[in-house]
Amino acid sequence: EVQLVESGGGLVQPGGSLRLSCAASTFIYNCVAWFRQAPGKGREGVAVIFTSGGTPRYGDSVKGRFTISQDTTKTTRYLQMDRLQPEDSAMYYCAAGRTGTACRLFDPTGYIGWGQGTQVTVSS
Questions:
Q1: What's the CA gap between 5 and 22, in Å, rounded?
Q2: 66 and which of 55, 62, 111, 121 could share a cystine (Cβ 3.0–4.6 Å)?
Q3: Is the pLDDT of residue 74 over 90?
Q4: 24 Cβ neighbours under 8 A, 6+ residues apart
């Protein structure tokens, strides 16, 4: 089964930037999404990218600030996070969309291969 590993988190000041990476153990045919979860809150869909191409989708809270991308080999995905705010602080996870699913950001049950997460803290 596919397994993904996140990296790149850290502490950043408000207004700063970070780039997260998500490396997959096998080829993913459908999509890869980033989710985040802050203490005491549910898992929130951040962005999703389709292996075959097409337009990525973003959660409303990150539109215009975050950019999801993938390398040419389609083995690593990235999440470029700009203009970070304290409310962006959370554990960030990536996961692969189940084959045949529609890769909906509001449905984490449609994803597999969750990594251990990488912590992002935005604070002055």
A1: 5
A2: 62
A3: no
A4: 2, 3, 4, 32, 75, 76, 77, 96, 113
